[in-house]
Amino acid sequence: MIDSGILDRAGRRVTLRPVDDDNWRAVADVAPRDDQRAWVPALAARYLLLTMRSDVWNSLAVYADETVVGHVMWGVDDDGSRWIGGMVVDAAEQDRGVGRATVRTLAAWLAAQDGGHPVRLSYHPDNASAARLYTSLGFTPTGAMEDDELVAELRPAASA
Question: What is the DSSP code string of 27-81?
């Protein structure tokens, strides 16, 4: 379990846990709002299949206290950079700070794995809410594109 002690706005502790025999169905059923389907799949099940067929991506269940409320993936690129991808927060759980807590928790965990590499993610240029969230968390656009998405990164803090 990855637990940074961050609470959502409802006061629930947000943790990231492996997808396993007990929670995979709940994770697979996570569905975004209809207006978000231009940027993420209709169900997180698609991301679960991707991680099963990929040597790069790893799925995590997002919990608020003991309830599955989302999905997020992480991976390591050939250059050593850490990536966050495939984040979906269930429509009924949005606007409670779950996404913010998820990105903060996973970014901190990934940075701690090897503090010398940036943590990267990508988002569609039309996804203004994602751009606001990631910018507010310190991610800056790199100018690169991955497929049709903007790449942003969080650089490791300089050591004193």
Answer: HHT----GGGTTTS-SSTHHHHHHHHT-SSEEEEEEEETTEEEEEEEEEE-TTS-
Asked whether the predicted pLDDT for residue 79 surpasses 90, the reply is no
- Non-local (6+) Cβ contacts of 85 within 8 A are 57, 72, 73, 74, 75, 121, 122
In angstroms, rounded to a whole number, what is the distance separating the alpha carbons of residues 35 and 147? 21
Please report the pLDDT score of residue 2 as a whole number.
Answer: 95
pLDDT at 115: 64
Does the predicted TM-score (pTM) go above 0.85? yes
